[in-house]
Amino acid sequence: MVIVFIIDNYKSLTNGTTMTAHRFALKLREQGHEVRIVTNDMIGQDIYTLKTNYIPIVSRVAAKQNISFAKADKKIIKQALEGADVVHALMPFKASRVAIKIAKKMGIPTTSAFHVQPENIVYGAGLKKFSSFFSKIIYKKFKRFFKKTQHVHCPSNFIAQELKKNKYPNQFHVISNGIDDSFIYKEKSIVSDKYELLMIGRFAPEKRQDIILKAISLSKYKDRIHLTLAGSGPTKNKLEKLAKKLNIDVTFGFYSKEDLIKTIQNQDLYIHAADVEIEAISCIEAIACGKVPVIADSKKSATPQFALDERSLFKQRNPKDLKDKIEYWLENEEERKNMEVLYALSSKKYTLTESVTKFESMLESAIFDHKSNKLAKTKLGKRIKKTVTKGKVFKLCILIFYYTVFPILMLYNKFCLKTKIKNKRNLKKVKGGAVLISNHVHTLDSVMSGLVAFPRKVLFTGMKYNLTRPIIGPIVRLFGTVPTPQSILENRIFFNEISKKARQGKYVHFFPEGELVKKDEKLREFKRGAFKVAVDSSVPIIPIRINFQDKKALFGNKIKKQITLNVGKPMFPDYSLNAKEALEKLKLESEEAMNDLI
Fold first, then answer.
1. Which of 515, 499, 340, 335 has its CA nearest to residue 432?
2. Which range among 116-120, 294-298, 436-440 shows the weakest confidence by mean pLDDT?
3. CA dist., res. 148 & res. 144, Å (int)
4. Of 459, 525, 545, which Cα lies nearest the Cα of 494?
5. Where are the transmembrane segments (predicted)?
6. pLDDT tens digits, residue range 303-334?
7. pTM assigned to the model
């Protein structure tokens, strides 16, 4: 593949995004791909150089974090995109926005990455007291950019969930930024009369190195602790003054990869105190070298995922709790040595090779979906697509019919069929679209599932035969039911378009069992369609189990059937797996959940 990276500030190696771009580009080239870089103020092979863009106030604040912005030169960007197979934007700024627009005009597939956490911007601007308010605004602004690319690389499941909370209409691919194979477990070789503690990270407000300094100042081992703070950034002077004031033995430094590995390997403990992290690759690198971490349990950080138990977590911004955890590990050397091995083993799933393999898969999915979109624009494709998207007039008829008939059906189900709905509150846990699934056991069970979601409209899927039946067919069509595909081309366009609907916030309904078997009390084998849509659109499955229960009449001994719809909790796809693995896992989990809803 010919892959084009669009990234501001590629020359600065002091932040995780740039380091990720360098590592991914190198690994992709080793695997035979051509990687072109579009960036500012840097010259080199396969680099297309843009000028730096000065933005009043913003550029001055960003410069303190060693960040600059590229000026979007359309001519240079177009040159870089000639003959490309896919364009990948790493930052949601002007150069990326323009590049995505040009790529679409040139008919080139696009992907993006969410590396810039809004909370980092807010902290960097000195507005951490108003972090929640301003972060929401930035998430909303970024959404305008990300909705233009279907496939998004998320470095952690944490940030994928944050995007889901903020209703981003994308397919998420959780791919670690990956650790280099050079970071390996090696026992400490340098003998020291002090305990060696380390944190790696930019000297920035959100990284909270100050909490570590305060924790050490409270410790009974204060005079026996040497702290290394590896990194660079705007708060260095402030941290140096605090260390001097608290009389802490600390070394500040920025290390080459080789020196950093040696430094990590000769530590007793690794501390990560950041309030905000999309992943914290530095923490995984320390773990890979066999260091036991002590991590802040911040809700705006992905880093707590690396802790194997509570002993490696401390209360965010709490120096006393951090002090207690540090002292525990220093006093229990044997247990620390045992855990070092376990932590080193836990890092194996974050290798750079594994990450780049997943990244390639994401790019291939983007290319495949791009081709599906092109097929949908052919004469035959348009005809197939129309069965999903419908025309404007027909859409209006569907809405009128839906909201006129459904209230009547609601009364019929309640008083004639004695239908009850349990746990409807589980729907409130879903932000945006979802795939509803239910067992197929009643002539009106699609209506019943629609009533679960009402007043939200559900997009039903059904067999083509049902849409052509006398009397029933026109009613089914007026509910907006989409016929399931019968050919390879229909299949491709169907899933592409249905997944778009789910990403855009629609509820889509499937009967994973396929055929209707009236009052069947056992679940039949599930087909894959519903779970493919959930994975391809990064939306949850909501299981609905239709149960029939015997109920004695109020008068006499007559037994009636009570129909109960039990709504299960939403189940999200595992974004860290490839599409096939995620589908099979979600299908299995859904079958188990449906069985539990009897």
1. 499
2. 116-120
3. 7
4. 459
5. 393-412
6. 999 999 999 999 999 999 999 999 999 999 99
7. 0.89
How far from the centroid of its chain's Cα atoms is residue 138's Cα? 17
380-596, CATH topology level: Glycerol-3-phosphate (1)-acyltransferase (3.40.1130)
Residues 103-143: tens digit of each pLDDT:
999 999 999 999 999 998 888 777 778 888 999 999 999 99
CB atoms within 10 A of CB 431: 15
How far, in Å, CA of 427 to CA of 321, rounded?
38
- Provide the residue type at 168 as one letter: Y
Domain boundaries, the chain: 2-176+353-371, 195-348, 380-596
Q: Does domain 195-348 have CATH number 3.40.50.2000?
A: yes
Q: Which of 29-33, 36-40, 63-67, 257-261 has the lowest mean pLDDT?
A: 63-67
3-state helix, strand, coil in the chain (%, to 5): 50, 20, 35
CA–CA separation, 519 and 445 (whole Å): 11
- Cα dihedral 509, 512, 518, 519 in deg (nearest 10): -90
What CATH superfamily is the domain 2-176+353-371?
Answer: Glycogen Phosphorylase B; (3.40.50.2000)
